[in-house]
Amino acid sequence: MPSSSFTTLALASALTYLYTYSSQASLSITNAVLLTCSIFLLLYLIWSLFLRPVYFSPLRNLPGPARKSWKHFFKIYNPNEVLEFVDTVPNNGIIRYLDILNSEMISITDPKLVAEMLGPRADHLNKRPKIKVIMESILGNGLVVAEGKDHKYQRKHLLPAFNHKVIKNLYPTFWSKATEMTSLMTEQIQSSSPKDLSMVVDFDDWAGRVSLDIIGLAGFGSAFHALSSPETDLNTAYRAAFLPNKNSRMFFILSLLTHPTLVYMLPIEHSKRLREGVNAVTRWIRGFIAKRQHDKPEKTEGSTFVHQDIISAAMEGGAFGVENLVDQSKTLLGAGHETSATAVTWGIYLLSQPRYAHIQNRLRQEVREYLPSPSSGIEVTEDMLEKLPYLDAVSKEILRVYAPVPLLGRIVHSPMEIGGVTFPKGTVLLVHMWAINKSKKLWGEDAHEFNPDRWLKDKVNGGATENGFLSFGAGTRSCIGRGFAIAENKALLAQLIGSFDIKPPHGETEDLDISWGITARIVGGLHMKTSVLEGW
């Protein structure tokens, strides 16, 4: 906004002149500059915080929720609260909010407009600068963080590593790791409660550990041993680098209010722990890449290399240098593992609720009828797991109700039009996946309910309008690992529900404290009474 700043400065200078002229005051150059700067700051604040958003913004006439108090600011970042706005504020797919400093936020609520925003109009958008710095400090400039031509190049050359053939070959890995997890959980329960074979288990912890082991094998062809030995140096470093804790929320807020790089380098415990974790994980990745490059057999004419892990497949293509391979590896570890673990945790939360006990029982019946017991040692393949329609429906419904990534934010870097509205440079656009996935306008009156049957009636869209299911994004930025995530989720849910009866320890789950970051995590874990079930 250089023109408005220049105008404000000119006005401040004029007011300074009028003051000195009318009062016949004699000001030194220093005092005149200070007075001009003070007037400039005051005028700029009045313009930015009040006049422009209320009276002069070209977007001021867009519909939006009533702003009743300062608490409204926190609601616009909470997808559960935004869901109320989406359902109650009359709109044509675009809602305008004002945050605590009256900065404009635009929520795109129509899936067709979201598809347009993230598809044909994607080149007009970037990540918000501070959010990008936060993500890049942890994930590197990999597929999730990269933008523009860089992103297109990376996605093109990573797609072969996520094709159907690769994912199909990973089903036995998903199942074997699920088997190891349920076996260790059963042993823990049997040793702690040999009489009733029941104890309270933190499913968030187990989901994180099994997902890390799976990403180790599927992504790197390496055994991380997070299930059997969670305190290894690599696993400890990983948790420090990628898993949120009680201080993560304050770290995030400070980063937005100041500058992420400054907060990242502060000599405080959380920043120190984060830096050490990221550095340790990066060292391991560099060692892994160097070893793979050293061990790679000489390629002869007409030959191909066949590796089962994703990073090796990316290396074989020859499209990435070492530094970008490091970034892709950090992205795979951070984004790939975190979203998978979060999806499992939310799945167990839903299935454990007393009002959905019939869904848990129905799913268990299907799993036990069509899949071999983990103790049988029989390898479960894609063909076997994909023949369970109710498991497929439950998995999709979990991802609908609690999308692992609840919110997507972009900033307009060149003027663009969506839905007949022109957004000027600097406009912040938000896509609340949680809200759209549960909008009654799109999903019907039972949109807020966990109802897997909707996917049995309509396997593709679940009864919603086209593009109403946004858990994996849309357009050119849609999740490249969608097939991987769904297959892993099915394998883990099948084993957990097939092996255990799961319910809240006190009958009903208390209100959850949710950490809103890149993913939506349950603060303090998910502790559920878990009973071993015989007969499978």
Characterization of this structure:
This is Cytochrome P450. Keywords: Heme, Iron, Membrane, Metal-binding, Monooxygenase, Oxidoreductase, Transmembrane, Transmembrane helix. InterPro entries: Cyt_P450, Cyt_P450_CS, Cyt_P450_E_grp-IV, Cyt_P450_sf, Cytochrome_P450_monoxygenase. Heme binds at residue 479. Its cofactor is heme. By secondary structure, this protein is of the alpha+beta class. It has 3 domains: 1-56, no CATH class; 71-139 and 406-470, Uridine Diphospho-n-acetylenolpyruvylglucosamine Reductase, domain 2; 149-401 and 476-532, Orthogonal Bundle (Cytochrome p450), CATH 1.10.630. It is 55% helix and 9% strand. It is built from 22 helices and 12 strands. It has helices at 2-23, 29-56, 72-75, 79-88, 111-118, 129-139, 148-158, 164-192, 203-220, 233-242, 248-257, 260-265, 269-295, 310-317, 322-352, 357-370, 382-385, 389-401, 433-437, 440-443, 453-457, 482-499; strands spanning 94-98, 104-108, 125-126, 198-202, 407-412, 416-418, 421-423, 428-432, 500-503, 514-516, 520-522, 527-532. The strands form 4 sheets. The chain has a 5-stranded mixed beta sheet. Strand 6 (416-418) and strand 7 form a beta hairpin. Helix 1 (2-23) packs across helix 2. The longest helix is centred in the middle third of the chain and has 31 residues, at 322-352. It is globular. It starts with a helix and ends with a strand. Residues 300-306 have low confidence and may be disordered.
Helical residue percent? 55-70%
- Percent of residues in β-strands: 5-15%
Give the CATH level 1 class of the largest domain.
Mainly Alpha
Number of strands: 12
Could you give me the name of the CATH homologous superfamily of the largest domain? Cytochrome P450
State the helix count: 22
* CATH structural architecture of the largest domain: Orthogonal Bundle
Contiguous uncertain segments of 5+ residues: 300-306
Number of domains: 3
The CATH topology annotation of the largest domain reads as Cytochrome p450
Q: Kindly, what is the distance between the CA atoms of the first and last residues, rounded to a whole number of angstroms?
A: 66 Å
* Biggest sheet features: 5 strands, mixed
Inertia-based shape: globular
Determine the mean pLDDT.
85
If strands are numbered along the chain, what order do they take across the biggest sheet?
Answer: 1-2-8-5-3
Radius of gyration: 26 Å
Structural class: alpha+beta
Chain oligomer state = single chain
